[in-house]
Amino acid sequence: MLLDTNALQQVVALRHNAVEFLHPAHGKNTVLCSVPYQMLSTLIEIAQAYEPYVLYDALATCNWQQLNNLSSFPQKPYSLSRLKIAIDPGHFAHNLSTAILEKKYLRIRDSIGHEYTLYEAALTEQIAVILQDMLQREGAEVMLTRQPGLSTLGITAEEWVQGNWKQALDESVRKGWLEKAESEKYGSYTDERKIIRDVFRTYEMHKRAEKINSFAPHLVVSIHLNVDEKNVPDKDGFHTLHKRNYSMVFVPGAYATEELKFPLDRLAFLRQWLGQQVPLSVRAAIVFQRFITDSLVVPAVASPITNELTYLLKFSRLHNQSNPGVYHRNLFLLRQVRYPVILVEPFLQDNEQEFFQLLQKDSYYITISGDTLNTSRRILQTARTYFHAIQAWIKE
Ligand SMILES: [Zn+2]
To answer: 291, 88 in Cβ contact below 8 A?
Structure first.
């Protein structure tokens, strides 16, 4: 097969802003960031060395006109009252047992045997609801990808499994999210927990991305709270608190070679490489990281911690040395969403101080409709910090 030089020229013509350099290989995992078009031929050589026709396939199946359209984003507005923003409260659990299934929870036992639990989905939705309210007061148009206590499908994971969930498999095959053979395998599942873990989780993420893309926002903020990578439960099922704390903000634009296996992934790579999504996401990420460092007083992750975290070392790339904490990474939402998007990890929930602060219901927030939300001071502070970051990003 030969590369179509005409198509190649169009790629070059489309690429106005060279953003990133080709990242050196981490072992076998070459992280391919957005590259200057001058390096296209080198990239093709490298891509072919690892996986023949990776790029060729993407180029050959690409709809140039469509790519061009996708790369033109609605201009960032000058005032919050003209802002269209999607806020994505991370994860979907509505109780501890689903959170355990999602592996997004903390269970702690103190020195006198008292037990405490937290789960991430309940915290991210509190931040999201308060942030939404703060933005709406300024006239912004805000879309939450899910409502508190529910998944993006408007029901809980358990309710979904009770219903006609096999329809989702057909839809997934139709939309290229799932291969036929996989869908048949999942179709034979009867264990509710396995269905939630293997089918619902991915399907729900696709639906989040779909919702965001049809909303066409100026910015997407995905809200998460991190835990230390190595903090896995002990034999009795308890986590351990510690004193470390760090923050980071993820943006799209980095792909490992093995993450370019499927045509849709390759297209996403090409779209991000050619369009403005990556540089626009980076601009927002830098502002968010600055506010987290200054207002929440959590430092951006840096060496030597960086070198201990597998997901940073193997699957992420620091944007540049002058902006610690801002990482390119191929997370599901960052790949599927076509608009400027950031995924924010402001602190570690399993940091001793953060954990007990998150347990406290020591603050109130009264919404525009008069509802009183009883929450942790730290949650309120986080929502307020994001609000101020969005304000600063608008003014920038
Ligand atoms: Zn998370």
So the answer is: no
Ligand 1 centroid from CA 120, angstroms: 7
Query: Other CB atoms closer than 10 Å to residue 63's CB: what's the count?
Result: 10
CA of 246 to the centre of ligand 1 (A): 15
Question: Per residue in 65-79, pLDDT tens?
Answer: 444 444 456 789 999
Cα torsion angle, 345, 348, 349, 354, sign: negative
Is the separation of the CB atoms in 287 and 393 below 8 Å?
yes
> Is residue 382 classed as helix, strand or coil in its secondary structure?
helix
Taking CA atoms, 40 is separated from 21, 98, 254, 280, in Å, by 11, 45, 16, 22
Residues, beta carbon < 5 Å, ion ligand 1:
90, 224
Mapping DSSP to helix (H, G, I), strand (E, B) and coil, where does residue 157 land? helix
Instruction: Check residue 331 and give its pLDDT.
Output: 93
How much is the pLDDT for 240?
Answer: 95
d(CA 240, CA 233): 8
Give the C-alpha distances (Å, rounded to integers) separating 51 from 42, 57, 317: 14, 11, 21
Alpha-carbon span 224 to 297, nearest angstrom: 17
Average pLDDT over residues 346-359: 97
Closest residue by Cα to residue 327 from 353, 345, 347:
345
CA 61 to ligand 1 center in whole angstroms: 33
Spell out the alpha helix ranges (H) of 175-238. Answer: 180-187, 192-195, 201-215
Task: Report residue 245 CA to chain centroid gap.
Answer: 20
Alpha helices in 196-346 (DSSP H): 201-215, 263-274, 277-291, 310-315, 332-336
Residue 5 has pLDDT above 90, yes or no: no
Closest CA to 222 of 342, 126, 140, 91: 342
